[in-house]
Amino acid sequence: MSYLDIDYPHDKQAFYQLLREQVAVYTDPAPTAVSALANAAAVLGAAFCDINWAGFYIVSRGKLVLGPFQGKPAVQTIDLGQGVCGAAWQNRKAVIVQDVHSFPGHIACDLDSRSEIAVPVFDQDWQVLGIIDIDSPTPARFNDQDAQGLEAVVSLIARHMAIELS
Ligand code: SME
Questions:
Q1: Helix 33-47 to helix 12-27 angle, to the nearest 10 degrees?
Q2: Is the pTM value of this prediction over 0.85?
Q3: Residue 34: which of 6, 16, 60, 53 has the closest Cα?
Q4: pLDDT digits (tens, 9 = 90+) for 37-88
Q5: Measured between alpha carbons, how far apart are the two ends of the chain, in Å?
Q6: Cis peptide leading into 68, omega within 30 of 0?
Q7: 3-state secondary structure of 159
Q8: What is the DSSP letter of 92?
């Protein structure tokens, strides 16, 4: 069965448990960090309903730098505190935006986006390695359960974000 054929449950707890299993299957073992994050982005893009962008920004040389993703081309660098992703990085916690139009400084990569979640990825010393970012065309698509679920998902691939990009 292809990863595209999987019927993900609507219940968020069950959804994130299956998502963790699928991310693990396609990222462990991984020959490189990019291959792991690319596969993780593909799994995320197939798993979530009602989203239009899912992917990673990686902390490198003092900025968030665009990593593997599924969706439209996006801004390639984000400063600390800038936009939703920069806020999650600066505050070191998940940012859930119910309506991107009312979030000051929101960076619009896809004009269809209406709500968004950005969750920081930490290393063992609680340094932020990067951000997982997901956009939806539906307002208020994400809640605290998504933040907790994504935190568990990214703990599986955090080691692949500890890279300096060239
Ligand atoms: N909207 C994000 C930028 C990244 S895109 O959504 C892919 C932000 O405000 O940080």
A1: 150
A2: yes
A3: 60
A4: 999 999 999 999 999 999 999 999 999 999 999 999 999 999 999 999 999 9
A5: 37
A6: no
A7: helix
A8: T
